[in-house]
Structures are given as structure tokens and as C-alpha cells.
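Sample log: PPM-type phosphatase domain-containing protein.
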Amino acid sequence: MNQNCKVSAAGFSIIGDGRYSYNQDTYDIRLNFIPEIPGSFYAGVFDGHGGLNFTEQKSGGAISNFVKKTLPPILEHELRSILFPTKNPSGTVEDLSKHEQKNQSKDDSKDQQSYHEDNGELFINSRYVERAIQNAFQQTTQETKNFLKEAGLLNRGAGGTTAVVALLLQDELYIASVGDSIAFMCFYTESQISTIPLNRKHNWCWADESARIQQKGGNFHQQQSGSYLIDENGQNCLNMSRSMADFEYESQGLIHTPDITRHTVTKWRDFALLLASDGVSDIVSTKDCANILGDLYGHYVEAGDDEIIKQELALKVSLNWPDESGFRVIRNRIPIISQRSVFFSNIFSSYNWSPLHQR
């Protein structure tokens, strides 16, 4: 990544005027996530569900906040184990020797976790990053199960949470998601603002998701408002096929494994990455969100305007929904030769859609 690029971010999570008087959504933003990698960031949206009382909040909110706090340090540890596998006594990364690098074939280098090029740049093997993300989600799932067990809520209908996470390392953006929260990119074309989805909602309309449920003996019911997993009493109980928690539905095919997609960063195209819960995505289209942001970015381009944009976007979106919602916005600020910062259509335009093709 061009080290003149600086990622800036803002987010909100507020209560709507609908049937809920509480908010179980939350979000997390961690700029400079791996300090040794300039421009790295981590961000996530977690949409909890579940109405059991838990201390001073509902159980879904307790779970979403637990996952929010638990996942990032585990992920950082997993990433460091592959990015910096050996340390010398001074605590800095030991490079592979030039002799070792020269003796490695290109195929061999693809199997390494990471190494330093002759020019000092760190090479990161994306397959190992994806493995680190999977491991972090798996460990977080186990920690969440332990958390609910200690609270006496395991398998008692405590609920769970979605998770959609963005991780940027060098020129690669990784999106990992479980549940029905979404990630999408806003970008400029020659004549208009457009959007591209970066993940899929995990529900029963996907062939692989419904097949897994049916193979486990689970059932789901399709109705106008969506598809729902049916519990043992024949009641609609969950409108997603993957979740962080909801452990009582594992026997019916619900899983906690994230889909992971990878997107190569390019410049001068996209201007905003958004992560959102269904409180936004079910009410306001991604295209409308992109147009709102495009208009706001046209008015607020100075340093520190992220908070203004966040507030304006929250107001415009909240006018349309009756329920709770969490929302995240990330965009790149690229200083140019002049002495002010301008927001360009930056960042993500090449995509690996292999997990999302089958329907």
C-alpha cells in the first residue's frame, strides 16, 4: 500500500423507535491494528439477538459485546504467529538470509507464511492470513461457549450474534462474516456512484446452506419476511444459517465458520467501505447509502470530518428504520501534493468470489 494513504474511520450504533427499547448491536474500529504494517486496520459489526435478561442488558447484547472484545486480540495473536514467526533477541523480525531466498523456488516461497524481500518489504502469504482468521473465529466461538456456560445460559435460548469483520494488511482486504450483517464497497464510475457486495448473508436461500441444514435433519420455513429455522416445537426461531453462538441449533446444521473473501487494494477508484447490520441493510439500499456518502464526502473533505459524516449519515439512515442498528464506515484519505487532503475514489477493486458463486 502507498504509505501516504491514511485510513480514517467512524461508526455508530443507536436505538431506533421500533419494538425494541434496547440495542444489541455494537461495532469495533482498530486503526494501526498491526503497527509494524503501515495502514493496517481491523473493524467489525456485531448484531446480537436474544432476549434473556443478563445483568443490565439482554443476552444478545452481552454476546455481541463479548465477541467484539474477544475476537481482535485472538486474531492479532494468530496474525503475529504467521507474520513474525521468529524473533531475534532484540525483538525484531529475523529475515530469511539472502542465500535462503535465492535457493527457494517460486513454488516454495508460496508455501511460506511470510518473509522479507531484498528491498525490506514484508511478503505475506494470504492463505496463512485466511487460516489465522478461521482460527481466530474458531477460538472466539469456544470462548463464547465457555462464557455462556459460566453464566448458566448455554443452550437456554440465549441467542447469538452476527459478525462481519474487515482486515486490511498491505494491499489485501479480507472480509470474514458469519450471519446476515453485510460489507459493501462504494465506488465512482465515470457517470455515477455504484456499489459491490463483499460478502453474502447467511440464510437458507443459498443452496449450500440449505443442503447442510437438511443433511443434519433440520427444517426451515419460507415466508414473506424471510426464511427461518424451525425449532423442535415447529416455531420459527432463527433467520440465519450461521451465527456466533446459538449453540442449541448446531445439531440442526447451524455453524459458526466464517466465509472469507479477499480483495486486492487498488487506488483511485473506491471511496468507502461499509459494514452494516440488517437494521441498515433491510431498510436502506446499499446504493442509497453510497449516494448519501458520496454527497457527504463532496461537502466534508477536511481532516476530522469523519465524525460529521458519521452523524449526518446516522441521521439520514435512522429516519428510515424502525429498529436498532449498528453501522460502520471506513474510507481512505490520500494526501496529494497540495497542502490539503482530498478523498479520492480509492481502494478495493479486484475480488475473489469463490465462496459466493454457488446458489
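Observation: The radius of gyration is 21 Å.
Observation: The first helix runs from residue 59 to 83.
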